[in-house]
Amino acid sequence: MGRGVAWGLAVMMPLAFLGLFFAYPVATLVGRGFVTDGALDLGGFAEVLGAPRTWRVVWHTLSQAALGTVIAVVLGVPGAYVLYRRTFPGRRVVRALVAVPFVLPSVVVGVAFRALLAPSGPLGFLGLDRTFPAIVAALVFFNYGLVVRMVGTVWERLDPRTEQAARALGASPLRAALTVTLPALVPAIASAAALVFLFCATAFALVLVLGGSRYATVEVEIWLQTTQFLDLRTASVLSVVQLVVVGLALVVSGRARRGRERALALVESSRATAPLRLVRRDGQAASPLDVGAAAVTAAVVALVALPLATMLVRSLRHDGAWTLRHYANLATTGDRALTVSVWEATANSLRIAVDATVIAVVIGMTLALVLSRRPASRTGRRALGALDAVVMLPLGVSAVTVGFGFLIALDRPPLDLRSSLVLVPIAQAMVAIPLVVRAVLPVLRAIDPRLRQAAATLGAGAGRVLLTVDGPLVLRSLGLAVGFAFAVSLGEFGATSFLSRPDRPTLPVVIFRLLGRPGDGNYGMALAASVVLAVMVGAVMTTAERLRPLGSGEV
Predict the structure, then answer these.
(1) Half-sphere exposure of 91 (CA within 13 A, CB side)
(2) Distance CA 165, CA 522 (A)
(3) Where, by residue number, does the polypeptide cross the bilayer (predicted)?
């Protein structure tokens, strides 16, 4: 009985938190758009869905997400082969480099591409600044590392004997890869593609910085309708449209992930990797597959490094000379663009990120513990599957919808939190909780249930089994969970742009304000502040990577 109560609390407490601070604000905002004079009015659907601009926005969302996903997957699979199936000097450094863009705040990615593609930038001659191709390129830059990691960590541990058997029967390396290895990787590739599509379809700050209203996506249009026009009806309809798209992406991702977990026979990574062969040596011919994949990967890695290097260089230049002027100006409020200095905003971001990380880790690890169970009944398994999908929803639902929903839902007793300092950490924790779950859950699911059964047979109670069997392995994944939560909180912009107080802005909000003000001084400060934010996030994730558990390949 006590065990049942404990598991009941473990389920109900996170669900109550998500219901109060996610479902309730989102439902309140969506409901406001469909209620007129206290009565249900669904005429907004016909009005909004009949407007040409709505379909133009939907087309921009789907087209940029589809193109970004296809290109990221096509380029990411060769990268996964080189970085996870082959060994070469400096492989760890290259892995870290391609992983940096995914953990960077989207505001920083937007600033980096503006610095690269602006008329005065290295690629300004291409005329791509504020164009659709620039947005797609930035989305690929942002998600390339995700594809490489999700596919690569499976490929690294894929049993090589099946491919070796095909080679022994006369198949060339390329044919063996296409007919044996690639089909085995389809579940991992599909899972990565579904998540990339999800991130591309819900991109906000990146599209806002690079495209503005001209190439507005559903996410950007929700922001424009709520902040510029106060049109809750249009925002509500668009939120419903986005929920449908997100729901479909999550269903595909969940099925692909379950297929990967069931279908693959994995081995230790050291058994599946081999040296990268690019030249003839020791009597062995260079592998055409290695040469082709390495060439594609090298070109992509160079393109990944270019925006970051350009942003850094331009933050150190002023009037054609090298200077630290923009960094010195971070102690000021700029050219009347800010209410606080950038360093004060940085301190605010760090304090808020600590609070959000604590909330996300406590809720996320509790949910991961529940989701790792293996119920004997089909009903129990279906219930856990539904809970897994619900937990992932905050990752795909518009952060703008969540933020504005907070303002209109939590503004009266007993939940009058509109002026409270806890509102921003809670909103940021909503985005971080799914990532914490994804970081911890694979480790818990990998535990052999016979270990728990043996501990129970020896007289250990349920609590002691959790502490002695699950506990040590969970602690191994704690570093990665904390790193993801802290990095996401530092870079969150969508909900924070609604909720942060003028006297307590976060660093991404300050960067966006600087970009919106004319003047080379403000733009230079935005570049310098973006470099500071990128270094902070990179340091957090580098530390977390050193603490991640062996064999953990989930995101």
Answers:
(1) 17
(2) 61
(3) 7-27, 65-84, 96-117, 132-151, 184-212, 232-252, 291-313, 352-371, 383-410, 422-444, 473-495, 523-544
Give the per-residue pLDDT at 222. Answer: 84
Q: Which of 139, 272, 263, 238 is nearest to 193 (CA)?
A: 139
**Residues 224, 216: contact at Cβ < 8 Å?**
yes
Q: How many residues are listed for the chain in this entry? A: 555
Cβ count within 10 A of residue 16:
11
Distance (Å, whole) CA 54 – CA 218: 8
Taking a C-beta distance cutoff of 8 angstroms, is the pair 145, 99 a contact? Answer: yes
**DSSP class of 158:** B
Residues 114, 423: Cα–Cα separation, whole Å: 31
By the 10 Å C-beta count (0-12 exposed, 13-18 middle, 19+ buried), 266 is classed as: middle
**Quick check: is 45 in a domain?**
no
Conformation bin of residue 38: beta by default, left when phi > 0, alpha when psi is -120 to 50: left
If asked whether residues 354 and 229 sit together in one domain, one would say: no
* Dist. CA 321–CA 323, nearest whole Å: 6
Confidence of residue 256 (pLDDT cuts 50, 70, 90): low
3-state DSSP call for residue 281? Answer: strand
Element holding 489 (H helix, E strand): helix 471-491
Q: State the Cα–Cα distance between residues 379 and 512, nearest whole angstrom.
A: 48
Boundary residue ending a domain (286, 315, 344): 315
Residue 59 belongs to what domain range?
A: 51-315
Query: What CA–CA distance (Å, rounded) separates 452 from 474?
Result: 14
* SS3 letters across 82-111: HHHHEECCCHHHHHHHHHHHHHCCHHHHHH
Give the C-alpha separation, 359 to 482, whole Å. Answer: 11
Separation CA 484–CA 473 (nearest Å): 18
The Cα 44–Cα 40 span in angstroms is 11
For the entire predicted model, the pTM comes to 0.79
Residue 283: CB atoms within 10 A of its CB come to 5
What is the separation of C-alpha 441 from the centre of its chain, rounded to a whole number of angstroms?
A: 17
CATH number, domain containing residue 105: 1.10.3720.10
Which string of b and e fits 396-413 if b means at least 16 CB within 10 Å? bbbbbbbbbbbbbbbeee
